[in-house]
Amino acid sequence: MTTHIVVSLRVSNPDSLAKYREKATDALAVHGGSVVQASADLKTLEGSPVLPDAIAIVQFPDRSAAEAWINDPTLADVHALRRGAGGSDIILL
Fold first, then answer.
1. Which of 20, 49, 57, 87 is the most exposed place for a label (fewest CB within 10 A)?
2. Strand partners, 55
3. Pairing between strand 34-39 and 86-92?
4. What backbone phi and psi angles, to 5 degrees, belong to 88?
5. Distances (CA, A) of 27 to 31, 35, 45, 50, 85
6. What are the 10-residue block averages of pLDDT along the chain, 93 residues in total?
7. At residue 82, what are phi and psi to the nearest 5 degrees?
8. What pLDDT was estimated at residue 90?
9. Whole-number pLDDT of residue 91
10. 60 - beta bridge partners?
11. Residue 41's pLDDT is what?
12. Cβ-count burial of 18 within 10 angstroms (0-12 exposed, 13-18 middle, 19+ buried)?
């Protein structure tokens, strides 16, 4: 069953983020993932959350594919670029 992750980014190193973006699409595709939507233009509709700099919603074929993506040792360098860009929270729905 299709599942999604939400990636919340707080950017402190834009250069690392730019390098990550160059590789992210291919890295997601290794496990059947794709970006559904990503934006830095965030707007609170209710409540008062602390907004990150950007959020992405990513789709995978199933939960195990999402977990395989984040744990894939061959993608460690790509994940390191994201982590090097600043803080990131990744939530499996």
1. 49
2. 8, 39
3. unpaired
4. -140, 140
5. 8, 11, 32, 29, 17
6. 97 96 97 98 96 97 98 98 97 98
7. -60, -50
8. 98
9. 98
10. 3
11. 97
12. exposed
Q: Rounded to the nearest 5°, which phi and psi values hold at 90?
A: -125, 120
Q: Dihedral of the CA atoms 87, 51, 69, 20 (nearest 10)?
A: -60
Alpha carbon 2 to its chain's center = 16
Instruction: Assign 9 to helix, strand or coil.
Output: strand
Whether residue 71 contacts residue 31, with contact meaning beta carbons closer than 8 Å, is answered with: no
Residue 15, both tokens: 């250069």
Number of other residues whose CB lies within 10 A of the CB of residue 10: 14
Structure tokens that stand for 17 in this block: 């983020």
